[in-house]
Give the backbone structure.
Amino acid sequence: MAITFFDLVDKDGRRYSPYGWRVRMALAHKRLDAAVEFCWHSDKQKLNFSGQHLLPVLLDGERAVSDSWTIACYLDEAYPDRPMLMDGVQGRSFAKFINGWTDTIIGRPLVRSLYLDILKSLHPSADAQEFRRRREGRNGMTLEALYANRAKDFDELNHAMTPLNELLRQQPFVAGGEPAYADFIIFGTLQMPRHLNGIDPLSEQQDGVRRWRDQVRRLFNGLADSV
Ligand SMILES: N[C@@H](CCC(=O)N[C@@H](CS)C(=O)NCC(=O)O)C(=O)O
């Protein structure tokens, strides 16, 4: 059946969504081809069929699946004959923890420090006022104040990564000897600044994470470098 993947795009055609990257890597891991449909922030009408307004969304035949975590679980359930993203109950439980940890402990400081860059790169049809209003309301600060806090946010993120760095000094991938969805979750989040503005939040101390990131970038014929 034909798969369509709805992904976020900015005014220059850049695809920087951390959740979109998780799904891109997951589809490649499962050796599944998908047609891509580009959407911008607040492109709600285009996503009406999915019953919600956030990206990414996967349409597999008639079946619409939203939310990157739900999509990853769906792909393993619908395509068990393809390489698994998460191995068994333990694999899924571990990846679920990594998903929550990444979104809160790593993603939150990273994303809020990038809001101003995202605002500047919004697609011309996106609702910039709504984008600003929602983020400022959620954080109780202007996007400019959040931007000014970037160095502190990067320090926080690097501190939180200490155990991950230690793990990746001892093994090649987050999931163990081979890459799996747990890797794509963290990697997807780190793809965001890379594709948005080229800023690298990782400090020099993150030698394990940096080595791992280089390895993941080489997967699937360098998919991570494609725009
Ligand atoms: N938990 C969701 C988060 C999805 C999400 O926040 N997507 C953002 C793009 S990175 C979005 O669609 N924003 C559009 C908007 O706020 O209008 C997932 O894992 O897919």
Summary: The chain is about 55% helix and 10% strand. The mean pLDDT is 96.
